[in-house]
What we know:
- By secondary structure, this protein is an alpha+beta fold.
- Helix content is 44%, strand content 22%.
- The protein has 14 helices and 14 strands.
- Strands 6, 7, 8, 9, 10, 11, 12, 13 and 14 form a 9-stranded mixed sheet that branches. A 5-stranded antiparallel sheet has the order 2-1-5-4-3, sandwiched between helices.
- Strand 7 (250-255) and strand 8 (258-263) form a beta hairpin.
- The N and C termini lie far apart (81 Å).
Amino acid sequence: ASARDPRRGGPAPATLARWLEALASLHRHPASDCEFYGDAAKLIVDPIGLDGGLVLLRESDDWRVVASCLPQPDIDIGVDRAVLDTVLDAVLANPTTHFHAVDESQTIASASAAIVVSPILDERGEIDGAIYGWRTLHSGNGRRGVRYLEAQLVDLIAKSVATGLARLEREEQASQRRSALAQRLPKQVVRQVELDDRLLLAQQSEVTVLFADLRGFTELCQRLDTRRTYEILNDVMDCLTDAVLAEQGTVIDYYGDGLAAMWNAPTIQNDHAPRAARAALAMVASIPLVSERWQRELPSDLQLGVGLHTGPAVVGNIGSSQHLKYGPRGATVNIASRIEAATKSVGVPILVSTTTRQFLGDAHTTVRLCQARLKGITEAIDLHALLPGTQASSSNDAIDRYSVALAYYENGNLPEACRRLESADFGALEGPAEFLVQQIRQDCSRKLGRRAGDCAVSSAAVEV
């Protein structure tokens, strides 16, 4: 019989109340509770009044008993394997509640027990498991089958278990997604995205993009034990990520021995460039501490290069619901990456573009180092060093001297530029000074084949 078929008569109101109360108690259990399935199996016996019950889950092409209630294990006809297999096959063929009604002379599969079975269906209507109960036909048992309302209650138990499993699956998915968001986004933004996931939809935004890369790590990998290498790299990535999240930035991705991050998406941040600059300074400040922690393992101190650029980008999630890959696309990203790569040649840890510098105002000290042609970028752009406050206060004279030498270089007076760059101590700008001298010598060698002192012609933009 089907549980949809009405039957006359039924339990007393007090019995119905007990049934509903017991069913409500099952709803209060989370599906992750180790007692959830056991309580479902117990409901088949008390308060329904059957002689035994099982909760089964479907795994691939097999069934697994996850809970049982057998108050009379000596009366086990209801769990005869042949009977069980026949009944479960019937459920697979027709996923509705099947039961031996009171007015029938035979059970589904046995003349010794009245059986009821209800499928546990997922949200797609596929069978996740089954609730199985039986009433044995023995002396002293006046009931000769399963009543319609009893079968209905077993059906409700199956639906309750299905609801619990679906809720558990959604909670696990939400937890995974929340974890993925928390790894990339600041806590405040995670909460906003959970309330409105439209924030992750593709949109045109002005963003400040940061690329950070650990210098010489490939060589370091060849010299260290693999496990140690990854432990050091994890330590570095923790510091870089903390710096991004502390300034409420979004981690775009991790790659090799570096990361990319951005600001002003998915939520608006009017001070996105200063936030990115503070994160960059914090990253560079954290690397000596990592080197100190691993000084016994490292052949030399770790070095970091960071590049910043501000510009328009299309921002959105190109990952999946389980694997977030939210970030910007477009020229702004490419330029930021090339600027980061230029830090190695120019000789400073942090470089920013002119557009980023314009957003920084007077809160940060920057020095224009040169006009550069970056690989893969058509137009030459100005590169600016971003100095930490401790260096900025003691570098005013060096900044002035470098600016004068750069002006001579860009005006074509290479001898005077070279003389000024070679005759002074530039402190934090020592790297850029050496880089510019090298550029002057290369210019002269390429164009005239003579020494720098004899050369008076130069391109204002350097190749990086």
